[in-house]
Write a structure and sequence with these properties.
about 170 residues; elongated; about 75% helix; 5 helices
């Protein structure tokens, strides 16, 4: 039964990653709507899911080790699912293992794409915030000491809406 346990754990891992994918979609909308409180809530939920995934991953590693022991391999090899499938001789079990491998791989690929998109959205938001702050308070490297009005070097920078000198 170690293979059945392994397959069940892989299914649970896929379900957990699908939940992460759902959260990534909510995160995208939250970032676009600029809802900081919602983003904090999503990050907390993601953290809980990551702990669950970490636990499931540990159980999966143990189930894979138990499966290897069951087929007579006494080493603690860290085989991927394709390599494990070569040790499964029942066609139905092998098919189930390869199916869950493809399913989990697809979910992880979609999750990676969603996370990359969210990362770009956050970077764009931060760039916009920096730009907005520069417009409001001026450039951070702006010299605030007195310069003679005839000195053209200091007058070339445009102060922001709020003049911090004054």
């Amino acid at each position: 039964m170690p293979l059945t346990t392994l397959l069940e754990l892989l299914e649970r891992l896929d379900e957990a990653h699908i939940q992460m994918l759902d959260l990534a979609a909510f995160k995208k909308q939250t970032i676009m709507d600029n809802k900081v409180d919602g983003l904090i809530d999503i990050l907390n939920r993601e953290s809980k899911l990551m702990k669950l995934i970490e636990q499931l991953e540990g159980q999966r590693a143990q189930a894979a080790y138990d499966f290897l022991q069951g087929v007579g391999i006494r080493s603690n090899l860290n085989l991927n699912l394709s390599e494990l499938s070569r040790l499964v001789f029942d066609p139905e079990d092998k098919s189930r293992l390869l199916h869950i491998q493809q399913k989990l791989s697809g979910t992880l690929h979609r999750l990676k794409q969603a996370n990359e998109l969210n990362q770009k959205l956050i970077e764009q938001s931060l760039t916009f915030i920096d730009y907005s702050l520069d417009l409001l308070v001026g450039r951070p490297n702006q010299d605030f000491t007195y310069h003679h009005p005839s000195d053209k070097g200091s007058g070339s920078t445009r102060p922001g809406i709020f003049d911090a000198r004054g």
